[in-house]
Amino acid sequence: MWNLDIDGGSQNNFDGTAIVRDLDLFLFDVTDPVNPMLVSSSQSATENTEHLWIALESNRSYLLQVKPGAGQSNFLWDYGLAWNRVAVDVNPLGVTTASLPSVWKNLAYPATSLGSTGGYGQKTWSVSSGSLPPGLVLSAQGVITGTPISSSGSPYGFTVQVTDEQMETATRNLSITVFATLSCYSCHANSAR
What we know:
Blueprint: E1 23-29, E2 37-42, E3 62-68, E4 94-95, E5 103-104, E6 112-113, E7 116-117, E8 124-130, E9 136-138, E10 143-146, E11 155-163, E12 169-179, H1 185-192
Parallel strand pairs: 5-12
Antiparallel strand pairs: 1-2, 1-3, 4-7, 6-10, 8-11, 9-10, 11-12
């Protein structure tokens, strides 16, 4: 809320003695009109600027009241109110998968579903940076499948992204290690017999 002191001018009915008045803000929850509850107030006399920063609950009714400050007499002056309503996401989207299994080269990767929490509606998955090991793919439904065709012994790092129907996104850095093909010398010796 603000109230400005305007000085000067020559229009009819202009009051060059205008002063800044002290006004206070009170916010009430009036969902139950018989028992209104004060949920926030601002009563500062500094520069006559009042602020209320509060998250309002859905399905509730509120009343914003402007009153003269303490010691201030009633007056007939205009004042201005401005507000900014910011949506607070009570169901934030997130990726819950923290790690992925390693795999051997040329062996099928166990189909692994990525997990998410929150968000709204159907979710779509993608790799937003880096890449999966060659031979593996991530479906739009968040399932990693395939057979790795090369190995590094080091983790392949990448970032997965999930997007919900409201175009909210969340990401998570993950990695998969592909080991070289396992050699089994005793298996070869036994099969030669």
